[in-house]
Design brief:
The protein has 230 residues and is an alpha+beta fold. Helix content is 21%, strand content 32%. The strands form two sheets. Strands 3, 4, 5, 6, 7, 8, 9 and 10 form an eight-stranded antiparallel beta sheet that branches. A four-stranded antiparallel beta sheet has the order 1-2-11-12, with helices on one face. Strand 3 and strand 4 form a beta hairpin. The longest helix is centred in the first third of the chain and has 16 residues. The chain starts with a helix and ends with a helix.
């Protein structure tokens, strides 16, 4: 579980600080233009393998994507992946805790009534490590019948994050990290269903439209709002 929390925190730190570009992917992204779609607006498909399971993500039109051996990352600003010193636009990372790790902590996480909520609670309990900022208490919800949870976080550097986790099966969790400048916090909530429009892991497909069940306004820790203004 320590490694899982470290992976969550690494993604948070990467997206909030943008101090260096991700490692060159060991498994390239597969890009497929969806049939019968207009070329200009055609979404792309990013594919990779996480914990020996195939993961497919629909990338919003015009966004940039890359796959590593442990995550799919995509951003609406090309230089969000570069060392520009600050985050621009919305960036997303999707990854899965290892099955071996979950098995070792099965009683704590996978045997919980909502494994996703338990996982995020463990991350938030490391409060002084969450993006060097502040996080809300995780909130449980259901995503197409799957137990899920989310929390919001803010950093002292003017970056906000929505971190979601969903329990796909008895031994599979998927984590989605959506980060943006604090000035974009309203747009993040508005665009969340489109940003996470379709995620498939093996035979399970999650549709972003079901995220409309989340609160219409996501509340972020107040400490960061002073940076962005209201």
């Amino acid at each position: 579980m320590k490694q899982t929390i470290q992976l969550v925190l690494i993604c948070l730190a990467f997206l909030s600080a943008c101090q260096s570009a991700p490692a060159i992917p060991t498994e390239p992204v597969t890009i497929d233009t969806q049939p019968d779609a207009l070329p200009v607006a055609a979404p792309t498909i990013a594919r990779t393998t996480l914990n020996n399971q195939s993961v497919t993500v629909s990338i919003p039109p015009g966004w940039n994507a890359l796959a590593t051996d442990n995550a799919i990352l995509y951003t609406e600003m090309h230089h969000s992946f570069a060392a520009v010193g600050h985050l621009e636009g919305i960036s997303v990372s999707i990854f899965a805790p290892s099955s071996d790790e979950l098995a070792r902590h099965g009683e704590l996480v996978m045997q919980a009534s909502n494994p996703a909520h338990t996982l995020l609670s463990l991350v938030v309990n490391e409060g002084h490590h969450v993006a060097s900022g502040h996080a809300t208490v995780p909130t449980a919800f259901q995503w197409q019948g799957h137990e899920a949870a989310y929390y919001t976080a803010s950093s002292g550097a003017g970056v906000i994050t929505v971190l979601l986790a969903v329990s796909i099966s008895q031994d599979t969790l998927l984590v989605m990290n959506v980060s943006a400048p604090a000035t974009e916090r309203q747009r993040v909530r508005q665009q969340l269903p489109a940003i996470l429009s379709s995620i498939t892991i093996e035979e399970h497909t999650l549709k972003g439209e079901h995220l409309n069940a989340l609160p219409a306004v996501l509340r972020f820790p107040a400490e960061d709002l002073n940076v962005a203004g209201n």
